[in-house]
Amino acid sequence: AEQALKPPMLLKIAPDLRDDELEDIAAACGGGAVDGIIVSNTTLGREGLRSPLKAEQGGLSGKPLLALSTRVLAKMFLLTRGAIPLIGVGGVHDAATALLKIRAGASLVQLYSALVYKGPALVGDILSGLAQVGDLTRLRGSDAEALAHQTGSGT
User: CA–CA distance from 122 to each of 2, 61, 93 (Å)?
Assistant: First the structure.
């Protein structure tokens, strides 16, 4: 009964972590230490960014984060061997980018920035697009190996 009242514990990580830091986090989160990992928070990096936002201070979110956050998501999927639920965040703005997160290893997909630009109808659009794909569980992590080693920021 006590376990049923326990709220889930999710760890949110930055996309700017080194591979050795990701390995440490994956090891620390194993064995039920957390219920899931949110990949990723905003980035402080601006490498390859072609935008007036390049000089802005603080964390960057949205489309410019897509490639980096997806690469880190795929790495975490491989490091955890898919044993920990991962929430894919960063740059999700349509069904194709939501599917990309699933193929990288996401059990769940989160979006926020795109809602500012496209409004709440975006959620229905994404769900409709994903429904056309069929069984998403078989696709979870299917491209993780390739995505984990992709280079470039995609921004």
Answer: 38, 17, 8
